[in-house]
Design goal:
673 residues, yeast vps74-n-term truncation variant fold, five-stranded mixed beta sheet, three-stranded antiparallel beta sheet
């Protein structure tokens, strides 16, 4: 198996593989002092195996200071070689613990480069199919090494005599309680004495254990002698950002970033907890790489879950459970799932467009939210709820504003109008269940409701019946986002007639002469301009400009310490307005996505679908759905913006949407439906 990484597999890499839960794709580790010492010890042990250092009971000393050529080992070797300290191994384990986050990041990247791990969307990793089948992987250019877990378990369970390397692995695993993750409770208790015996065979392993055991106060695991004080905003600071008043949250937050930096404290609290905003490409990268270890999502959405009778849902899950559900539902949210139903998507879209006549004037946000809701309900839950979609959206909108954003008191969900609307939610749930029996679904394409109901049937403990209603409602909530996004995209198209004409030509090539294009015809080449308009619209006007998270483990971000229970506003789209990432960021420019510019591929630059483990699972579905809608609109009608001098303003709550003043007029029907 070829790889660009030429150095042998290191102990740090094998530790990560030992910590990987192959069923869940989740790394079973907590980035605390204990684990940091273990990762530091792995590097020091590898230096010993490479004959660069030696150790005894009193000291660690360099015997060969020449670099190994391995970026994982050489920074530590250089520091030891240049130090004037004559210290024992434990000293260097503790000191090197400051590099643990860097060590983990480099290690994961290398395992992916080697083809041992596969990195999946959302920040999850799985063993490659080759390693899963063979149980081995390349240890260097010329040797094959049995997979780490098999070797270590043989040492413990079968009493195999360990070689020095495996003795070190056992010691390191034992120090961070790793065997509790890979052994059953019964086997762990039965083999604990054997584990302890093997763990004592290696001096570095004993030094790591001492560093953990003797630290009554666990030090920070980043090289920050004194965390910087977090700048505190006042309400005046916020009001000075004019973009907040026009609803452009990403642009406003980039203004905050320019003046105050990447980490700022808000002048308000949530649930009586401090609120801190993370802004800019560097914090985006941090969330992508490390958010899974330090942040959780449940706190901000549990109120919305309760409204619909649920307690555990995909948006609120973290860790292994979240990965399991994503994996189970991945195919249902995929582009391929929508592509298989392309004729239905086109039919739904044409039904809405066919009701527009020349001279008609309509409000953008409501029209496109209803337009998308009909598509979403038909394609994802197989129920036509068009006759009460307004009531559904009204209830879901109110639930978002009261339970997630806290902008309205909770009793506003119990007004007579909301009580009537809630009955529609129950009606929808009953209709879905009635229409998704085996006989009713026979011969029909599998939809999202099928996927959730199947998951419930197969594992009712993991997804109980009480938690099924929320995903169906969430699909309709997603239609609010999609409607708003389509409104922004059509606005961009209408305001740029040259782009409008080019999209019309792409649509003519696909739909002209009554053609019914197949899914495979919607290549990036065929819809190039349409696709780039969508990218630019989502850069300028992302419908989810920030995400809410809660800090669950203390961490350092850009030199600022974040404490547990802190509420975070992860402002992932603020970087969309960074001039060092996007040339002339205020300018609408679809050419910034051409291959020779590709401004959006810079890490941390472009994030309309969120960050980290909770990156939108249906992003590829959305890309196709948005493109088809834009193409059909451009093919069938010519739209104008009203009033003609309208200047875009955004309603930022509960999601970013064009404000109510924006209207479109059907100037011409170019091709009848």
């Amino acid at each position: 198996m070829s790889t660009t990484v030429e150095s042998p597999v290191r102990l740090a890499e094998e530790l990560i593989l030992l910590m990987l839960n192959e069923q869940s794709g989740y790394l079973e580790m907590v980035p605390n002092w204990d684990f940091s010492c273990v990762m530091a010890g792995a590097v020091i042990a590898d230096l010993a195996l490479e004959s660069r250092i030696d150790t005894d009971l009193d000291a660690l000393f360099v015997i060969d200071s020449s670099p190994t050529g391995d970026s994982l080992l050489d920074p530590t070797l250089e520091e030891i070689a240049n130090s004037q300290e004559n210290s024992e191994t434990q000293y260097w384990v503790e000191r090197n613990a400051a590099r643990s986050e860097e060590i983990v990041t480099v290690t994961l990247d290398r395992l992916v480069e080697r083809g041992i791990l596969e990195h999946e969307s959302g920040g999850f990793w799985t063993l490659s199919s080759h390693v899963s089948r063979s149980g081995s992987y390349p240890a260097s250019d010329s040797t094959i090494r049995q997979e780490a877990k098999a070797r270590v378990l043989s040492v413990i369970l079968d009493d195999i005599i360990p070689d020095p390397r495996d003795a070190i692995l056992v010691a390191l695993m034992h120090t961070c309680d790793g065997f509790k993750l890979v052994l059953s409770p019964e086997d762990y208790q039965a083999k604990l004495e054997r584990i302890q015996t093997v763990a004592k065979l290696d001096l570095v392993g004993r030094s790591v254990a001492s560093a953990v055991r003797e630290s009554s106060v666990k030090p920070k695991t980043r090289r920050v002698l004194q965390p910087k004080p977090i700048p505190k905003l006042s309400f005046i600071d916020i009001l000075r950002q004019r973009d907040f008043r026009t609803g452009n949250i990403p642009k406003a937050m980039y203004g905050i970033f320019q003046k105050y930096g990447p980490v700022v404290q808000a002048p308000f609290t949530m649930a009586n907890e401090t609120v801190v905003a993370l802004i800019g490409p560097e914090t985006n990268q941090w969330v992508n790489r490390h958010g899974r270890f330090y942040l959780r999502s449940k706190d901000y959405i549990e109120g919305l879950e309760r409204v619909f009778g649920a307690s555990r849902t995909l948006p609120s899950m973290d860790g292994a459970e979240h990965y399991k559900m994503r994996k189970s539902l991945q195919s249902a949210y995929s582009r391929a799932a929508l592509a298989r139903r392309l004729p239905e998507l086109i039919s739904h879209c044409k039904q809405s467009i066919g009701s527009w006549s020349e001279g008609d004037v309509f409000r953008v946000t409501k029209t496109f939210q209803n337009h998308m809701s009909r598509q979403v309900s038909g394609l994802t839950i197989g129920v036509d709820c068009s006759h009460y979609v307004d009531e559904l959206l009204a209830y879901e909108h109110r639930a978002l504003v009261t339970e997630v954003q806290g902008a309205l008191p909770k009793f506003m969900l119990k007004t007579p109008r909301m009580k009537r609307a809630r009955k529609r939610v129950l009606e929808l749930h009953e209709a879905i269940q009635a229409s998704h029996t085996p006989a009713q679904r026979k011969g029909k394409p599998r939809d999202l409701a099928d996927a959730f109901l199947e998951l419930h049937r197969n594992d009712p403990q993991f997804l109980p019946e009480t938690d099924i209603r929320f995903p169906f409602v969430a699909a309709m909530v997603a239609s609010i986002y999609l409607g708003s996004a389509l409104g922004f995209a059509v606005y961009c198209m209408v305001r740029h007639p040259d782009v409008y004409s080019r999209i019309h030509r792409e649509a003519e090539a696909l739909f002209g002469g009554g053609r019914e294009p197949k899914a495979e015809e919607f290549t990036l080449e065929a819809i190039d301009v349409t696709h780039r308009l969508c990218l630019e619209s989502q850069r300028l006007y992302p419908v989810i400009p920030w995400q809410l998270r809660t800090v669950m483990n203390p961490c350092i971000v850009e030199g600022f310490e974040l404490l547990p229970k802190t509420r975070l506003l992860v402002c992932q789209t603020a970087s969309h307005y960074a001039p060092d990432l996007f040339k002339d960021p205020l300018k609408f420019d679809i050419d910034r996505y051409l291959w020779d510019r590709a401004e959006h591929v810079t890490p941390g630059a472009y994030a309309p679908y969120g960050l980290g483990t909770h990156t939108c699972l249906g992003s590829r579905w959305v890309e196709l759905q948005m493109a088809v809608n834009l193409l059909l609109i451009a093919y069938h009608v010519k739209l104008d913006v009203l009033p003609e001098n309208y200047k875009l303003a955004i309603n930022p709550f509960p999601t970013a949407a064009p404000n109510k003043k924006m209207k479109f007029r059907v100037a011409q029907v170019t091709n009848t439906v």
